[in-house]
Amino acid sequence: MVEEDGGAPILYPAYIEEQFRERNLAYYADNSITTEQGIVYTIPDFSTLLTTIFEHNLLTFMLQLPTFPYIEQVIQYGGKVLCSEDGKPLGIRIKGGKNTARWIVSASGWGCDRLSVEWLQLLRQVYQTAQVGTPATPGALGQAMFRQSFKQSHGDNWRQHRHRRPSGPIANKIREESSGARSEVFQLGVVFDVAYENDQHNGYGAALAAPQPTGKTFSITGKVAQNYPFYFVKCEVMIHHDIVIGPFPVRVGDKRNRHPVFPCDRGVYVTWLWNREIETTRREGCSVKIISGFAWREATYDFAPFVEAVAQLRDTAPHEVRPFLKLALVAAVGRLGMPSERYSLVAGRDRIVGDTPVCDAGIAYDWWIHQEHDSYPQSMPHMFSHTLMLCRLSLFEMAKRCMQQELNVIATNTDAVITEKRDATLQVKGEHVETGEWTALELHNVIVKANRHLDSDEKSVHPGVPKKR
User: Phi then psi for 324, rounded to 5 degrees?
Assistant: First the structure.
């Protein structure tokens, strides 16, 4: 079967590390580099920067990568400045001699809001716990841990057990039509003296460890869908009468702000659903007509050992390390859903047709945003989509249960249901909770001011704002 760009099928994982790369940790701020040992190097110019990061074998972090003063010199030197679609720098890779390279990356991806030697030493603890070298980002750390688990599961024959990625057009269609995590607000701006966060422990891990679709991807019509254990299809769903909580997602919004809503009103809705969602939707009394889509005959449990290994590390690691391991697992799931397109900044002299200029706050730079296509992407959009679907279903079942018990549901968010009253059947959140188990945490002075936001005396959740560690 011919796959991406007319070549052979793309296989995942593409490689297994023969040995893990180790770097010394450092951060750049105020024209200096500070290492995890507390050594400070003054950086007066780009040449000194190059000498320092290569001679001392550094992985360097910054809080705000767009403020890095040598971006233009990096580009002119031939380095790689990875960026977002709108030109915001995300990571800098500088090549050295003998096939070496050094990275300068944002610390905010690790949840850091203040760089210090203590933070670097904490990150060193994380790397020592994971035992897969010093990957620069949480996603890279999580994927390295998965590859290690994959090798341990399959041994020297690991190549024969790899998973094939859907062809480029199908992968893009799955990404385009898939819905994200579930989150809703039912009590906006209301302050509760006491409320409860009913949380599924390691919810993403539980979903990832479940059987995942793999093998050849088939294009199907509704008539044959039931012949496959996994299918993702375009549907027409009819809600015959108003319901309290919607079991299925419908994507709304423009390309940059696409998000799922969960209709409850009587009517007909066109959406893309996995077979598990179709089963649940029908069980809730809705009619579902399958039109067409994609299907898989094979299942894999290859992520289960990885999830179990991370869970065991979290249970035994120091408390301050545990959030980083959770972050690595969640980011590894996110890597499965990444697009094949990458963006980088190039100098004006190197731009080609199609590159777009960078303009920030009315200032034009001689930097251009260049799009590249990854010819061997290591994302698996069908597995990513399937994992998020399982998270949504688990959250729906818990939210529905809380409503049936009249616990006054305040909001839902990915793997948590916030209620005014406590579900007495759930244990209090504590140590050694099993993956997928639901627990309750009592919160005080609780208010939800926006979707996916939560404020209370005990904790706050604000998407996009690094947590204080």
Answer: -70, -35
